[in-house]
């Protein structure tokens, strides 16, 4: 569908995006021994690094392994993290855990959480419905040793409810806090990484603190689920299946590392395309896998059919926050939403009017060209919106870089439409109507206390100081 990498990789011509040519902050590992002066480093023609000892001898140095956390801590480009072979974020690491489980006396509980967008992409590839795809994926993962398969549509209900609540709170304090509005969504990690590294402290106060569905599921699996199973969080290996490579970056943020349990909330992220590779590695087509019952603990289901949320396939944030705010703030029941296309199909707006007065103005902005225009207008104080659903990928999350590519006889546009149609074929349910979600708010989140509940469902952002070097100069 999209290129192998996400839309972030296609930003090299944008003036305000950091160039990818900045030197890495951790090129080699150099051991310092007490009592010895710092040695010199010699670089050979083939790029090898050698330490020159005091006696003139040479010692070859190993290249340091760069983790996603290292890349996130650097003020270089977003895309360098995507292009590095990262062992901890691949299907190979999942296979390693499953293999070790077979020979280990102490089993690690393996949980896979599948996103609705990945499910729809795989459904289109195999000519299945999304619910049938979910049942067959459940069977496939359990056949290779996974214990539980969940649906991040369930955790998205928390994200939507928290976003609704956060917007109303921001709107009510907008006169006192000039950066309360517009509220910019936070579900897209590519956009968050770009905002932190490119616009830093200026843009961050506007971004919603609500966690993405992936990281809410991380809280649920390593928190509530671990408690229910009488397990320590580090006894669970949590994998998510996502449409974008940037979710690998998101899972690696230190904000989502549980210090007390020495584990990440999401241990491994694999893309829709990597699931296809796993099927091919097993010599299987998903059509050949006998379906299994869905795990209903953390899944949005009605019987054996999966449900979705109304609104865009990127999560429906605009739809749900808009309808909730209209009712909560102005007592207006919104049944139908009319979207107006502005400039291009990836930028749309919605307005709530009453007696000729505009009460709310919302927008959706997909793709970095629209995002850049959005930020520039915000800097010039010419952005008139109260809320913007922001996604880095053109056409939204369904077009993520990790989604499956079209066959030779089908265009990207045709495949994207097919995936959208499959997603929209699911019946909808309001997040407020999710009985299991309501139960967890009343029990688990209430019991941990308001401050802890906020920590489990919200996050924080960190502006990255720009580093200037000669390579960033435009000649």
Write up what this structure looks like.
It holds the Pfam family Fe_hyd_lg_C. This is Nuclear prelamin A recognition factor-like protein. Keywords: 4Fe-4S, Iron, Iron-sulfur, Metal-binding. This protein has 475 residues and is of the alpha/beta class. 37% of the residues lie in helices and 15% in strands. The radius of gyration is 23 Å and the shape is globular. The protein starts with 39 loop residues before the first strand and ends in an 18-residue tail after the last helix.
Main attributes of the structure:
single chain, 475 residues, alpha/beta, five-stranded mixed β-sheet, four-stranded parallel β-sheet, 16 strands, globular, disordered N terminus, disordered C terminus, Fe_hydrogenase, metal-binding, Nuclear prelamin A recognition factor-like protein
Q: Which percent range fits the helix content?
A: 25-40%
Kindly estimate the percentage of residues that lie in beta strands according to DSSP: 5-15%
The 3D shape can be described as: globular
Q: If helices are DSSP runs of H or I spanning 4 or more residues, what is the number of helices?
A: 15
């Amino acid at each position: 569908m999209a290129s192998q990498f996400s839309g972030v990789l296609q930003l090299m011509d944008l003036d305000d995006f950091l160039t990818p040519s900045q030197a890495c902050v951790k090129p080699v590992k150099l051991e310092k021994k007490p009592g010895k002066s710092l040695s010199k480093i010699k670089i050979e023609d083939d790029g090898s690094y050698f330490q020159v000892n005091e006696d003139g001898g040479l010692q070859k140095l190993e290249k340091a392994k760069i983790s996603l956390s290292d890349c996130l801590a650097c003020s270089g480009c977003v895309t360098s993290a995507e292009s590095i072979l990262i062992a901890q974020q691949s299907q190979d690491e999942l296979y390693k855990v499953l293999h070790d489980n077979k020979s280990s006396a102490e089993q690690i509980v393996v949980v896979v959480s599948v996103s609705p967008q990945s499910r729809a992409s795989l459904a289109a590839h195999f000519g299945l419905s999304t619910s049938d795809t979910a049942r067959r994926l459940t069977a496939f993962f359990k056949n290779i040793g996974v214990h539980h398969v969940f649906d991040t549509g369930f955790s998205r209900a928390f994200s939507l409810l928290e976003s609704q609540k956060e917007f109303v709170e921001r709107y009510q304090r907008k006169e006192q806090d000039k950066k309360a509005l517009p509220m910019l969504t936070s579900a897209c990690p590519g956009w968050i990484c770009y905002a932190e590294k490119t616009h830093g402290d200026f843009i961050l106060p506007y971004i919603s603190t609500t966690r993405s569905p992936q990281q809410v599921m991380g809280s649920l699996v390593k928190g509530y689920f671990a408690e229910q199973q009488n397990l320590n969080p580090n006894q669970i290996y949590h994998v998510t299946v996502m449409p974008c490579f940037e979710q690998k970056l998101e899972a690696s943020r230190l904000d989502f590392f549980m210090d007390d349990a020495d584990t990440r909330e999401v241990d491994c992220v694999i893309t829709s395309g990597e699931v296809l590779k796993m099927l091919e590695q097993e010599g299987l087509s998903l059509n050949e896998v006998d379906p299994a019952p869905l795990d209903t603990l953390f899944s949005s289901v009605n019987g054996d059919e999966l449900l979705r949320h109304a609104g865009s396939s990127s999560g429906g944030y605009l739809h749900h926050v808009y309808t909730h705010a209209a009712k909560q703030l102005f007592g207006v029941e919104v049944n139908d939403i009319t979207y107006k296309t502005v400039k291009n199909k990836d930028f749309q707006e919605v307005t709530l009017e009453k007696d000729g007065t505009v009460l709310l103005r919302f927008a959706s902005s997909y793709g970095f060209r629209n995002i850049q225009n959005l930020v520039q207008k915000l800097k010039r104080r010419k952005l008139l919106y109260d809320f913007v659903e922001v996604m880095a990928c053109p056409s939204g999350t369904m077009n993520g870089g990790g989604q499956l590519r079209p066959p030779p006889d089908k265009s990207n546009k045709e495949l994207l439409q097919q995936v959208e149609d499959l997603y929209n074929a699911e019946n909808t349910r309001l997040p407020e109507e999710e009985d299991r979600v309501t139960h967890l708010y009343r029990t688990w989140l209430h019991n941990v206390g308001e401050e802890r509940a906020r920590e489990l469902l919200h996050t924080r952002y960190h502006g990255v100081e720009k580093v200037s070097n000669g390579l960033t100069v435009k000649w």
